[in-house]
Amino acid sequence: MSLELTYLLASAALAFVYMMTQAGAYRLQHGLVDRDPNRDVEERPNMLTARAGRALRNFQETYPIFIVLVVVVEFTGRSGLLTQWGAIVWFWARAVYLPVYVAGLGRVRSAIWAVSAAGLALILAGILI
């Protein structure tokens, strides 16, 4: 399995961590037995729940791009140093992003997001060059 596919597989586990962080924060706020199981009427999320939800949504915005880029790398046989480093950079930046976001380190979070975007740009450059 290529390095890019290895990181794609690892990213599925990372997506699960993001999802469970948001779900766990929601349950901490609302308890195990919610008053409205359909969530038709919800109270405003507390700070932890809101941050975990925003972190998950942000992950979901860039994750499809990562998936597409890795699939293109695999189908075109364009794996190389740029695509490999791009996958590594994107994955680890996204792994660090979640706890930094939940902790409320806004400026650091923005810098980490930029690093993850650079990882995507590296993969794209590796495909195009």
Automatic annotation (TrEMBL):
The chain crosses the membrane at residues 88-105, 111-128. The keyword Transport does not apply. The keyword Transmembrane helix applies. It comes from the Bacteria. InterPro entries: MAPEG-like_dom_sf, Membr-assoc_MAPEG. Gene3D superfamilies: Membrane associated eicosanoid/glutathione metabolism-like domain. Its main location: membrane. Pfam families: MAPEG. Keywords: Membrane, Transmembrane, Transmembrane helix. It is found in: Membrane. This is MAPEG family protein. It comes from Sinorhizobium psoraleae.
